[in-house]
Amino acid sequence: MVEKELHDYIKLIQLRGCEEQTTEVKAAHFGCPEKLYDTISSFSNQNSGGTFIFELDESSGFAKVGVYDAQDLQKKVMEYCEQMTPVVRPVFTVCDEDGLVFVSAEIPPVDIADRPCFKTAKGRLRGSYVRVGDADKPMTEYEVYSYEAFRKKYHDDIRGIEGATINALDSNKLDEYLVRKKNDRPNLALLSSEQQYEFTGITRGNQVTLAALLLFGIYPQAYFPQLSIIATCVPGTEMGDIDLSGNRFIDTKRIEGTLSDMLNDALTFVRKNMRTATKIDRETGVRTDLPQYPMDAVREAVLNALIHRDYSFHTEGMPIQLIMYSDRMEIINPGGLYGRLTVDQLGQAQPDTRNPVLVTAMETLGKTENRYSGIPTIRHAMKKQSLPEPIFVDSRGDFKVVLYHEPENVPEQTQVSSDKSSIDIQDEKGLLEFCRSPRSRAEIIGYLGISSGQYALRRYLDPLIEAGAIRLTKPDTPRSPKQQYVTDK
Questions:
Q1: CA-CA distance, 225 to 50, in Å (whole number)?
Q2: What is the C-alpha to C-alpha distance for residues 151 and 44, in angstroms, rounded to an integer?
Q3: Which end of the chain is more exposed for a tag (fewer CB within 10 A), N or C?
Q4: Beta bridge partners of 94
Q5: Across the chain, how many H-helices and E-strands are there?
Q6: What is the enclosing helix (H) or strand (E) of 381?
Q7: Which of 338, 281, 360 is nearest to 148 (CA)?
Q8: φ and ψ at residue 374, rounded to 5 degrees
Q9: Is residue 409 within 8 Å of residue 386, measured between CB atoms?
Q10: Cα(37)–Cα(27) distance, rounded to whole angstroms?
Q11: Other Cβ atoms closer than 10 A to 130
Q12: Helix (H) or strand (E) holding 395
């Protein structure tokens, strides 16, 4: 910063009367302050960096006291910075006012691939700090591991699971997956079964991987009971609120199974516990059902939590949380944003992938497009229903999506249905109209215009079939190559 910026910075600190996330005030009129390592570490480990202000005395209400010797102070601060790993290069600014000399030292952020920055003599585990408000807190072992995992590209989704064999997997689901894999990869079909398992992330060495258990396991929670979803519906706006009968929970469920099972059951839980509004058009009398939450948004939020959560041994005891409050829904998964991605970049920048095998497998299974469209889909779905923007919160060790259900503009002629078992039919692609005449799978995929045909069918056609809105022309042979789909009149 230039001298004027430093003067303005000092006035702002005195006006507010406090330090902040990126500011640390140190009195230096009697000598260089001690124990700067913690703050150097925490500033270096946050994307915004931070600034030392060496001319104010916090104990005297941030009075201006100046520094003892600007040149010697800069030299000693540099010595502190050189005892860090990686070495930190501060940027100094010196100015004077009323006979007092002031010094600031800007600490730049360390590249995320080099984090955590720590005091070399104390080691990575004991010498790494993170900034929380105006305080420096020791990093947890998990926070240190998270940086290590990104730097060394650990893939915890394909770590071998002790005691798990191929018999722990559903052979039918596994075979169907491998058939899909081999359709686009003819060389894979030439390999032995053992090689196919190894190359597709089903096994590592002689052990079944975590990804295989989560995708095809007969009962994955036999090995990891907490790799599940804890779904809860509470009567108020905070956990602990009770209803008139003294109940703390309206509904609660531990959701288990494979990733696909948990996704489907989570959506069922949400449908069961949300209200559905009915909008009547004044002119046409046409009725439109409006779910409290757009299911497109809920599905993407839950799916993101399942495939992008941290699956390291540090978090294997932490379930995903899905909490429905009276005014909002929160989906919280262990593991913050991975790599260089920040909250303001969500949906705009291509992210680093924490669990590449899970992501590509779910694409093959038709559960996701793997085109980084999840966040834009959530935003679009909320906007389409005139609901507030989704909120994304990246905090120490977890990531949270918050969806509020109160519309920004309440639709006219709206009636609220208390029937929680009502079926929510989503047909944003117009398949009901397209299938007035019987259509084949190929025709439907072409109409939807989505590159992943399996995803298109599972995402847009299957829900309409399950709801009874579209029926199969050959229901007794659902896999028939001559199968067609027609709107149920």
A1: 41
A2: 16
A3: C
A4: 103
A5: 17, 23
A6: helix 374-384
A7: 338
A8: -60, -50
A9: yes
A10: 16
A11: 20
A12: strand 391-395
What integer pLDDT is reported at residue 419 of this predicted model? 40
Q: How many CA atoms lie within 13 A of 232 on its CB side?
A: 20
On whether the CB atoms of residues 277 and 417 are closer than 8 A, the answer is yes
CA distance 125 to 142: 10
What is d(CA 377, CA 450) in angstroms, rounded to the nearest whole number? 14
Cβ neighbours for 173, distance < 8 A, ≥ 6 positions apart:
215, 216, 258
Q: Give yes or no for a contact between 358 and 211, defined as CB atoms under 8 angstroms apart.
A: yes
Sign of the C-alpha dihedral, residues 332, 336, 339, 343?
Answer: positive
Closest residue by Cα to residue 358 from 146, 155, 151, 154: 155
Cα 221 to Cα 47, 117, 158, 176, 207, distances in angstroms:
37, 37, 17, 22, 17
Please work out, in degrees rounded to the nearest 5, the angle formed at the alpha carbon of residue 460 by the alpha carbons of 459 and 461: 110
**DSSP strand pairing (251-255 vs 229-233):** antiparallel
**How high is the pLDDT of residue 412?**
37
Question: 177-184, long-range: CB within 8 Å, 24+ apart, which pairs?
Answer: 177/215, 177/216, 177/361, 177/364, 177/365, 180/364, 180/365, 180/454, 181/364
Inter-residue contact 299 to 424 (CB < 8 Å): no
- Taking the C-alpha atoms of residue 2 and residue 295, their distance in angstroms, rounded to an integer, is 51
CA-based R_g, the chain, Å:
28
3-state secondary structure at position 155: coil
Structure tokens at 124: 């990575």
- Are the C-beta atoms of residues 24 and 52 closer than 8 Å to each other? yes
The secondary element (H helix, E strand) that includes residue 466 is helix 462-466
How high is the pLDDT of residue 461? 87
- In this prediction, the residues of the chain whose per-residue pLDDT falls under 50 are 409-423
Instruction: Of 459, 59, 176, 86, give the one whose Cα is nearest residue 299.
Output: 459
pTM of structure: 0.75
pLDDT at 372: 67
Tokens of 364: 């093959």
Residue pair 258/234 in contact by the 8 Å Cβ criterion: no
476 exposure class (CB count in 10 Å sphere: 0-12, 13-18, 19+): exposed
| CB-facing half-sphere around the CA of 117: CA atoms within 13 A | 29
What DSSP element (H or E) covers 328? strand 328-334
